[in-house]
Amino acid sequence: QVQLVESGGGLVQAGGSLRLSCAASGRTFSNYAMGWFRQAPGKEREFVTAIWWSGGMIYYADSVKGRFTISRDNAKNTVYLQMNSLKPEDTAIYYCTARARELGTTDLRHPRAYDYWGQGTQVTVSS
Questions:
Q1: Model confidence at 125: pLDDT above 80
Q2: Which of 33, 42, 68, 113 has the greatest number of beta carbons closer than 10 A?
Q3: From the centroid of its chain, how far is CA 115?
């Protein structure tokens, strides 16, 4: 079992920045691919970004490319999402996700790729 706890959400003006953190506990963090998804009110959950266990491959949704950066610190069992140039359309609950290495490779952009999810943290961007 892996427990994921997100933090760092909040209210920010358009153009501002936030950094989300996701602390993992329970198993060896470096054996997990990590991802971020978000869900806005009335919309489906959507992929934001993901990083493989080695950090060698990273994926971003087109809507956040160039503005958001995912990183991981395996020594701290934490994955980060640095969000810059925030827009009102970035308003959503942001979820941290994890996929065990023993499950093999897959398309990390799909929510079904992940077997663990955090509770989410609210990000609100005002115009």
A1: yes
A2: 33
A3: 14
